[in-house]
């Protein structure tokens, strides 16, 4: 009988051992087949200026940084191993001795009262699982721990653990904790500071040195004592660490202002588009985003906005970019980011007003206009094809009541000239040409489009003007140069392709030079040029165009190296006051002068197919020595005037005898053939 029992016991034992062995092999096989679990976690994304200075740190719901094990103070590693898992480098993911002790206590209390998790198990839980105390979670934790130990070395696991453990106050990982508690990098922590941080993960609320200093200090001393007992530190190091005062960083509860916040928001959207992902993944993906932001220009733009915006609810949208590369160097999307994150430089669409006219006049140059082409400026009612009438008016109802040149029409922003030109070409033509300039917004094919009745954004208008500044070459606006992932691998890099020639080079130059006229009072006529109020403040050549509607004020202008667009108005489309109407020009002037103050003076260099001649601003004809304000004007070769101005000639008694070959002067006020079309 006894022999039979022994046999059964032996068979049972062998069966149990075989089952255990088989189960172990199946578990190991399962872990092997499943492969290495991913180590990716949410991390802070860093945003850099063009000079590669950190201008912002984007985070998801948690604050994280990642540092290599070599960049972490040895004191942190020693105090963490002593506290959390002193046999970490000796076990295969499970500390059997601790597990047995914890299991006895759990069975005694019939509940999970004590844990024995190793660093590997805690890392597995941090990466893949919740922190609930259930047997299912413990089983899954064990499987993940096996897989981590099977496929990764100990240093990789320890590095991951130290970069993911929670240290309280929203700080995940030793680097984030070091910065938050002591305002230093993890590599710079002293023994006392390292032991203090090693104390926190056991109870981030209970052991926070900010809220529970005594608890934190007691646990720090316990950790230091254990390190001394285990021979990790000397008696002297222990004594010095115990005595070292903890200099915690003071945190201002007021939210710190981000540099160029509207620009950074635009960067995140652009990054998500390039990487084909969502914004949250960008914020928490641990990326390093290298941008085009010029910190000094951003500060100058913000200063100009702060200096000239009135103390009212008037808002602003502004963007500045290099026309040759498309790099956006500065951006302001509103007066107060904390109050409103709506980016008026990118997202808002407002009526462009007369800033739309340069697109019209480029089309006019394509249809045979020259800077000297004259049209009658007078109050006019246009009868349209559908039988309706359209009667635009000039600013304050002023008219020349005489022919004016294209050069004057741009400088004075004459609306009658613009509408006549739009109707002469056909309203569809302006829409098509605006598309060439990159305007993507909805554009109505109507006579009033010449006066900027379409709603457009600051960004697309500024980008459109960059083609003019860059002699017709297109370099799309962008904010990102390069993106690297958390391992410093390049995942996106902008290629510097040769800019596309979208416009005729010579016509683009002629237009750019015509746009310098808004600051040149030699073009004054029935009113002053539109830039007369700011031209005394300008110290170098600029080209530009302003525009004003009842609710919107614009100023967009450029040098060969910088294009800047400014819009001001009210979010609720409230009518502008007389003072409001000048703000955009004031901001633009202050910023452009500051942005160029360290730069050499640039000129708009004519292309090979352009000639410059002096003309009389009133008649558009070649100037004579008697013309009061001759202006150097550029024409495409072969289109320059050949007839001399006679309007400013002296009286007949003062004139020398006229040769028969001299042309007969044409009196101002005689209509040109264009006028008879309307």
TrEMBL record:
Organism superkingdom: Bacteria
Catalytic activity: [GlcNAc-(1->4)-Mur2Ac(oyl-L-Ala-gamma-D-Glu-L-Lys-D-Ala-D-Ala)](n)-di-trans,octa-cis-undecaprenyl diphosphate + beta-D-GlcNAc-(1->4)-Mur2Ac(oyl-L-Ala-gamma-D-Glu-L-Lys-D-Ala-D-Ala)-di-trans,octa-cis-undecaprenyl diphosphate = [GlcNAc-(1->4)-Mur2Ac(oyl-L-Ala-gamma-D-Glu-L-Lys-D-Ala-D-Ala)](n+1)-di-trans,octa-cis-undecaprenyl diphosphate + di-trans,octa-cis-undecaprenyl diphosphate + H(+); Preferential cleavage: (Ac)2-L-Lys-D-Ala-|-D-Ala. Also transpeptidation of peptidyl-alanyl moieties that are N-acyl substituents of D-alanine
A cellular component term, taken from the record's GO annotations: plasma membrane
Domain Glycosyl transferase family intervals: 58-228
Stored Gene3D superfamilies: Biosynthetic peptidoglycan transglycosylase-like, DD-peptidase/beta-lactamase superfamily
Protein's cellular compartments: Cell membrane
PANTHER family reported for this sequence: BINDING PROTEIN TRANSPEPTIDASE, PUTATIVE-RELATED, PENICILLIN-BINDING PROTEIN 1B
Family from the record: In the C-terminal section; belongs to the transpeptidase family. In the N-terminal section; belongs to the glycosyltransferase 51 family.
Protein name as it appears in the record: Penicillin-binding protein 2D
Organism from which the protein derives: Pontibacillus halophilus JSM 076056 = DSM 19796
